[in-house]
Write a structure and sequence with these properties.
The protein has 2 domains: 262 residues, Glycogen Phosphorylase B (Rossmann fold, 3-Layer(aba) Sandwich); 186 residues, Glycogen Phosphorylase B (Rossmann fold), CATH 3.40.50.2000. The chain is 38% helix and 21% strand. The protein contains 19 helices and 20 strands. The protein has a 9-stranded mixed beta sheet, with helices on both faces. A 6-stranded parallel beta sheet has the order 17-16-15-18-19-20, with helices on both faces. A 3-stranded antiparallel beta sheet has the order 10-12-11. Strand 6 and strand 7 form a beta hairpin.
């Protein structure tokens, strides 16, 4: 069995702020079936080590960016975790990246330390374990392949972009603090408009670059999606590939989900019971003839929240309703509260996040709205497919890779699993909402689409096989 070290800032079930954690936490088990042992290195945020079993210290550094640090190897279920215990960097109140006052001012150093430790373990091993390959995720892990290359190591490395909008950009004055060689501070290195970009450091040094969907890999070479790094991606096009994310089909399983009334593609009548529960929970009218649409999202411009008024107007006019769960920018929270006030009994809003509630929403919703302006992969639409909650999505990134939009051709071929709209603007979304309502009114077509969606391949098996093949190729090279 070959070994791979995965380095990231979060991993379920220990710490999560977004889809990155889902991927990092799910990939090791999926790869085990492909003959790979993957260990995940994350920071030992407050309480993380307490949740691990059978821990032991496998690596030490007397001065890791300001103080001693230890690497604790332990397990959480089947997940093998290397937790970097450095209290001066990670033992603090708040989330992984911020507290109530905002982002931590030393985030660059905190994740550089994580990468330094990962590079050391990748190069020299930890205890009797030595990886054959290093796999880094997003800007927080991007310095790990860079540190390896700058030290002359030839260990194969993979860099995965989950969201290129976050680039780890800091001032050039931190060059020495981050232990970066001055001679690599140039356009083909980690320099980015006079600053340091830790993500760019990884992109220019890794042996392979992956994105979390094939469409996103193509989009990142275009100026409207590349966030200033499109030239870097295009220059390395030969080593860029998109590998679609999967979901944990055990956690997201409508037949065994403890948070809802169980149902399947052959027992859809139970989904109707979940719909009634959801209507009551969001204080929606008891009689809703149109589709009950859900939205579970961060409330930001990237997620297309500013496009909602036009869609909600159309949805309500067609007899439908909206249940929304999320939090984010102040203007967006105010906007959705305004919609709830404007359409009482037809729009229900919960500000915040509740994992169990999100499960009940997918179980009870007829459709899930994902109007993102860009979406590297997206998991929300995958959860929707799994629960027969048909996605209505923008034609971007992983959304268009996973949802087959209803059209005369796809409906005739019995292939459609949702509604896809383009361009990403209010008019297109209003038109897509009308199309969704028309489909919902045709119960035979709608039921067929639901059953088809629930049979979609959404797990990690295919994607894990592609990662394993990539690892094997890099090692052979």
């Amino acid at each position: 069995m070959k070994h791979v070290l995965s380095v990231a800032s979060e991993a379920v079930p220990l710490v999560k702020t977004g889809g990155l954690a889902d991927v990092v936490g799910a990939l090791p088990e999926a790869l085990a079936g492909q003959g790979w042992e993957m260990r995940v290195m994350i920071p030992a945020y407050r309480g993380v080590i307490d949740r691990l079993k059978k821990t032991k210290v496998v690596w030490r550094d007397p001065d890791l960016y300001g103080a001693p640090a230890e690497l604790h190897l332990g397990k959480h279920g089947a997940l093998e975790v290397m937790a970097l215990h450095a209290p001066h960097l990670y033992d603090r109140a708040g989330g992984p990246y911020s507290d109530i006052r905002g982002d931590f001012g030393d985030n660059a150093e905190r994740f550089a330390a994580l990468c330094w430790a990962a590079a050391a373990v990748a190069r020299d091993g930890a205890g009797d374990w030595r990886p054959d390959l290093l796999h880094a995720h997003d800007w927080q892990g991007a310095l790990a392949p860079a540190y390896l290359r700058y030290a002359g190591s030839s260990l194969p490395t993979v860099m995965t972009i989950h969201n290129i909008a976050f680039q780890g950009r800091v001032g050039a004055e931190k060059m020495a603090t981050l232990r970066l060689p001055r001679e690599a501070f140039h356009r083909e290195g980690y320099e980015f408009w006079g600053d340091i970009s830790t993500l760019k450091a990884g992109l220019t040094t890794a042996d392979a670059i992956t994105t979390v969907s094939p469409r996103y890999a193509e989009e990142l070479m275009r100026g409207e999606y590349g966030q200033g790094l499109e030239g870097v991606i295009a220059a390395r096009a030969g080593v860029v590939m998109g590998i679609l994310n999967g979901i944990d089909e055990t956690v997201w399983n409508p037949q065994s989900d403890p948070d809802c009334i169980p149902f399947s593609a052959s027992t859809l009548s139970a989904k109707s019971k979940n719909r009634k529960v959801l209507q009551s929970e969001f204080q929606l009218e008891s009689k809703i003839d149109g589709p009950l649409v859900i939205l579970v999202s961060r409330l930001t411009a990237q997620k297309g929240i500013d496009l909602l008024p036009a869609a909600v107007e159309e949805l309500v006019a067609q007899g439908g309703a909206l249940a929304l769960l999320g939090s984010g920018d102040g203007w967006a929270e105010e906007l959705v509260r305004g919609l709830a006030a404007r359409f009482p009994g037809r729009v229900g809003v919960r500000i915040g996040y509740d994992e169990a509630l999100s499960h009940r929403m997918f179980a009870g919703g007829d459709a899930v709205l994902v109007p993102s302006r860009f979406e590297p992969c997206g998991l929300t639409q995958l959860y929707g497919l799994r629960y027969g909650c048909l996605p209505i999505v923008a034609a971007v990134g992983g959304l268009v890779d996973t949802v087959i939009g209803a059209s005369p051709a796809t409906l005739s071929a019995q292939a459609a699993t949702g509604v896809v709209f383009h361009p990403v603007d209010a008019l297109a979304l209003r038109q897509a909402t009308r199309r969704l309502c028309d489909l919902h009114a045709d119960r035979r077509t709608w039921t067929a689409m639901m059953k088809r969606a629930m049979k979609s391949e959404l797990g990690w098996a295919n994607s894990a096989a592609r990662y394993a093949a990539l690892y094997e190729r890099l090692i052979a090279q």
